[in-house]
C-alpha cells in the first residue's frame, strides 16, 4: 500500500453529514471516496464529471439567480473593461 499523507479540507457540515451517510450505505468512508475522486481526476486529467448549471434553476435561491443574471449582463456589456493581467487590474483599482 502506498504511503498516505494527512490532508485537511473544509466541507459544509450538512454536506459532509449527508455524504457520509450515503457513502456508508455504499460501504465507503469519506477518505475512500475522496481518494477515488482524486484518482479519477488524475486518470481523466480533469474533473471526472460535467460541471454545469442545472437545467431546472427553480431550486436556487433568488439572490443566486439574480447574481447569475447580473453576471450575464456584465459579460455582454461592451463598456465593461476586462483584464487579462492581474497586475494591471490592481493598478486600475488603485488609481
Mean pLDDT across all amino acids: 90
Which class best fits the helix and strand makeup?
mainly alpha
Helix content: 40-55%
Judging from the principal axes of the Cα atoms, what is the shape?
extended
Biggest sheet, in brief? none
Measured distance between first and last alpha carbons: 56 Å
Treating each run of at least 4 consecutive H or I residues as one helix, how many helices? Answer: 4
Strand residue content: under 5%
DSSP strand count: 0
Chain oligomer state: single chain
| Pattern of helices and strands | HHHH
Low-pLDDT residue spans: none
Radius of gyration: 20 Å
Explain this structure to me?
The chain is an all-alpha fold. It has four helices and no strands. The protein has helices at 13-25, 30-44, 62-76, 86-94. The longest helix is centred in the middle third of the chain and has 15 residues, at 30-44. The mean pLDDT is 90.
Short description:
With 95 residues, the protein is an all-alpha fold.
List the helices and strands and how they pair.
Elements (H helix, E strand, L loop, with lengths): L12 H13 L4 H15 L17 H15 L9 H9 L1
Keywords, please?
0% strand; 4 helices; mainly alpha; extended; 95 residues
Amino acid at each position: 500500500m502506498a504511503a498516505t499523507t494527512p490532508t485537511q479540507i473544509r466541507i459544509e457540515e450538512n454536506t459532509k453529514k449527508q455524504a457520509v451517510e450515503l457513502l456508508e450505505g455504499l460501504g465507503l468512508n469519506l477518505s475512500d471516496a475522496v481518494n477515488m475522486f482524486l484518482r479519477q481526476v488524475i486518470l481523466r486529467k480533469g474533473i471526472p464529471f460535467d460541471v454545469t448549471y442545472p437545467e431546472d434553476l427553480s431550486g436556487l435561491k433568488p439572490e443566486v439567480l439574480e447574481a447569475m443574471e447580473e453576471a450575464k449582463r456584465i459579460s455582454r456589456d461592451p463598456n465593461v473593461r476586462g483584464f487579462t493581467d492581474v497586475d494591471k487590474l490592481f493598478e486600475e483599482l488603485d488609481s
